[in-house]
Structures are given as C-alpha cells and as structure tokens.
Design goal:
heterodimer, A: mainly beta, 11 strands, B: mainly beta
C-alpha cells in the first residue's frame, strides 16, 4: 500500500541557511500534518493543512513556513537555521473521513552544523 | 489541551507479554493511538481505538481503554526481540485534530 513519502531522507545545512522539506501524502488524503522530533524527544506538532488551507498551528517558529499545494503535497520551509533545529521532521496524512487515522512518513533528518 | 503520560522504560523477557500503560487528561479525546518507533526510523501506526470502544485486538496486540480512569494500555503477547522499540501513546480530540504524543515507552527485551 502507498505510504507517506518524505524527501529528502537526510539533509545537512549550515547555520543561517535555508531548508525545504517535502511531503507527499497517501493518495486521496487531504490533510497533512508536520511534526518535529528532537533527539530523545516525543514528536511535537508544528502545523497542519486541510484542503490546502492551514487548519491548525502548534509550536512552529516564525522562521518556518509551510503550505499545501493543489496536488495535496506539502512543503515545510525553514529559514535562518539554528543548531536547535536539528531534528527529525515527520509528515503525516489522513483522510477527512470517519475511521481514518494519521499515517506518518519515515521523516527527514535535518542536521544543522 | 491534551496531556499524555506514559512510563519511560519497560523490560520484558522474550516470550512474555508486555503491557505498556498510558494516561491522558482530556476526557473528550475521541481517538487514541499507539505508534512504534524503531531506532532511527519513522513512526509506525500499530493500532488505534475510538473512545466508544473498550477493547480492540489485532493479532498479538490488545488495546484496552478505561474511559473512567482515562487509561489506555497496549498488550503485546509473546514479545519478540523485534518488538524492541519506543512505543508512543497519542490522543486526539477529533479525527482531523492534531494528535498529542506521550514521551514514549522504551521497550527492552531480555533474552
């Protein structure tokens, strides 16, 4: 079965650089969520989109922005990167229907040096 | 908002049953999830339960929900070495609401 695809799998950036993470949801899924998991931490919700509109916002820094496109894929843009942004970034998708849980991608590991 | 608590570590002998416990604070939580994360890997959805259910069984996994005590448990029968991972309990108010994770329980399998 198709899963959530995230790219790239690994990304190394220097401080103050910019990074773009991509997420391709499961086909027909219309809702996308972004989570950040720091080393040894639980995943923290950043932001979500439903039908290309932002539906909820969590602890996302102002330096980060995200959007969902017409094909439902989403991109997380991160600027002025800091060492503390090093983490695993997960995308999840779901279908706006009863009995549809969230399914996560394998994540993008971002390392800021 | 939702707050999810779970013990951080559990050690179980291979072949025994593992029981991972979780408590949540928001009584309006509609969906409760269990995710498995192996080292360096993603979050694998193991199972989920709706708040109108008391129990759900799926092969070696049994989820029990005590709504009165806001307690959720995951039982893994015949625990194997491949079950060694971090297990996250998570809750959401509505299907399309963000889910809040617990800190994760690290399951260690003893030979």
């Amino acid at each position: 079965a198709a899963g959530v695809i995230q790219s790239p799998r690994h990304l190394i950036k220097e401080k103050r650089e910019t990074a773009t993470l991509k997420c391709y949801p499961i086909p027909r899924h219309d809702t996308v969520y972004w989570y950040q998991q720091g080393p040894g931490q639980d995943p923290q919700f950043l932001i979500s989109f439903y039908e290309k509109m932002q539906s909820d916002k969590g602890s996302i820094p102002d330096r980060f922005s995200a959007q969902q496109f017409s094909d439902y894929h989403s991109e997380l843009n991160m600027s002025s990167l800091e060492l503390g942004d090093s983490a695993l970034y997960f995308c999840a998708s779901s279908l706006d229907a009863y009995n549809s849980p969230l399914h996560f991608g394998n994540g993008t590991r971002l390392t800021v040096t | 908002g939702e707050d999810v608590e779970q013990s951080l570590f559990l050690s179980v002998r291979e072949g025994d049953s593992s029981v991972i416990n979780c408590t949540y604070t928001d009584s309006s939580s509609t969906y409760l999830y269990w995710y498995k994360q192996e080292p360096g890997a993603g979050l694998q959805l193991l199972t989920y339960i709706f708040s109108n259910m008391d129990m759900k069984q799926d092969q070696r996994l049994t989820v029990l929900l005590n709504k009165k005590d806001k307690h959720l448990s995951l039982r893994i029968a015949d625990t194997q070495t491949g079950d060694s991972a971090i297990y996250f309990c998570a809750g959401a108010q509505n299907r399309d609401d963000k889910i809040i994770f617990g800190k994760g329980t690290r399951l260690h399998i003893l030979p």
